[in-house]
Amino acid sequence: MLTFDDAISVMIIIGTRYTVLCDTHLGPDSIQEIYGFLASIDHPDNLFIFNSHSDWDHIWGNCACPDSIIAAHISCLERMKERSALDLVRNGEKTRGPVQIILPNLTFDSRLCLEDDDIEFIHAPGHTIDSSVCLDRKGEILYVGDLVEDPIPYIDYDRIDVYMKTLESLVSSSVQVFISAHSGIITRDLIRSNISYLNAVLTGKEIDTSLFGDYITVHQANINTRTIFRYEALAREILRDTFVFEKFWSGIPDPEGSDQESLIKFLNEYLQEIRIRRGIP
Q: How far apart are CA 4 and CA 6, in angstroms?
């Protein structure tokens, strides 16, 4: 596990055939740091990259590895195509070196195995629809990307029930060590705590946010993002093949800084506007 100065971690597995890098952080400069580490140890020259999901802070370093296999779930490829340009505009000041979006060149549906290296990649939807995990079967170590965070996870997928089932499968697994991209080495107790939080959000239970600290904004974003997803579905239904992801999301107020009432007012006005343009009462 290598942790950068922004507390984001990547995982490297030294296999027999491949050196597997789980996520590529923020750009070419990040990859140079990783190469610096690899230069100090024996490892296969074949670098195999795994994108745990399509969020910008996990894929921007892809462009520094043009000759490598870049593996991800098929929905990660589709999600990167849809949102990467907008993510780069919104968060471009956080790039480390010049970033060009490079898509995965090897995709899988449910799982992908590197049998020679005893490594497995498994689709695990939850944080996002395209989330996947990397299992080092020999070491019983699981890289979970953003599926689990301390104290609460980000919700960027409208199926919280599926998210909870994914985390429950982690708890019941035989894995000995879990690594989170934003929280380092984590415990089963934290995974259970994340499940409890998700259940409270799903069922509308009152949530004590006093222990969330800076993550209070994450909680606000989670509540708002669920609302935005509902309106996105309505907008897609109205606009059909003319719906443009970038156009819709670029106009949305920041989910972390918006209150529910103002957000819903904005979204209702947006829906009314597109209904009028489409001639829908």
A: 5
